[in-house]
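Troubleshooting log. The previous structure file for this entry was overwritten by mistake, so regenerating from the original sequence record. Sequence copied from the archived sheet and checked twice against the printout by T.R.
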Amino acid sequence: MRYAVRVVVAGLTAVLIAGCSSHAEAKKETGTSKGASGADPTASAVQAAKRYQEAVNDDDWQRACQMRTEQFRHGSVHECVTDNAAPDAPSPSPTESDAFPPLKRADGSTVPPKQTPSDSGPDRTETGTVTAGSSVSVPATGEHPAGTGVLIQFKVVQSDNTTTVRSALRVVRENNQWLVDQAEDIDEADDAHGNPVHDALMRN
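Regenerated output below.
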């Protein structure tokens, strides 16, 4: 009789230990799954959009074109850089300089040439810090694949005028990296339905 009781007790103990172990393992797995699903999968897309706009504002077209899809570049990276980089101002040839001598006043003094805007002059354009807002999923449309839409904002200061630029960037995943496939300015009509990034990117 005592032997039978010991067998029963041993059996119950084994069941309890197995049950506790299974519960702990299940809890561990659940926690791991929740941690993975809790991460924002589009955070890197938002950061890529921000870095792209910073490169554009800095006129760093080598970097900006590398962050575009081939469709958005309309060709190779080199062609993209050539199409977007500001051309150097050509120096006048000796013939051109001779053809347009300095103007002189009636008293014989020379009229100074008209000053042009410079990097340090009053007409210089400055851009503020780029901020990237929340992201939204955007479906494929036309030549653009489905991707993530990101709101981009920054201020532009020129003389005494300050404006806020708002644009929407379509960021897509290609070859394990986020690339910009589309950029659209956000206008007042895009704000009408409360989803300006989506509406701006779906216009074209």
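The domain at 43-85+123-201 is CATH 3.10.450.50 (Nuclear Transport Factor 2; Chain: A,). Archived copy saved in two places this time.
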